[in-house]
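Dear colleagues,

As part of the handover before I leave the project, I'm documenting each prediction I ran so the next person doesn't have to rerun anything. This entry is a single chain, and its sequence is reproduced below.
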Amino acid sequence: MRIKNLIPTAILALFVTGVGLMAQNLSTLDIPLETPDGDQTSIAEIGADKVTIVSFGATWCVPCKKEMKAINEIYSELQDKGVEYIAVFIDNTKTMAKVGPYVKGKKFKFPVLLDPNSEVFETVNGTEVPYALIYDQNGELQFKHDGYLDGDEEHIKEEAFSLTESPENGSEAESGM
């Protein structure tokens, strides 16, 4: 490879690395989003000072629906340990109207936000759904998950709980990134 070809490649690599770093902290997700009820809040506001699982999904995504159903069943257990789960729907404007009725019909207990232009999804470099990110209490990204298979909620729960344990107790979380 010639040197002149290396320079654009190096610049692209730096750009991609820089973009990836934007979403490494929960505070970068302080973008106002609407709830299905029309209120506005942000992921950063909901997850402040908590271990936070942010999962991007859509009403047309079967694995997303399975993950949300499974998480809904263990949501009380997550909250008891100080873990927040936030579902962010990236449906487009045509299917976004289905989110509210879907969420109400499933009786989801966790917060739901709407990202119809995928602005936040792009900020976290999401490529497919479901896409889950787990942040520690300091808002630092610790784990990422692409896709969902039955039983993955237990692995996600274990990772989140590992972040709630204090280092004084001899248990430090290991990064899964």
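The first strand starts at residue 33 and ends at 34. Residues 5-22, 168-175 have pLDDT under 50 and may be disordered.

All the best with the project,
I.
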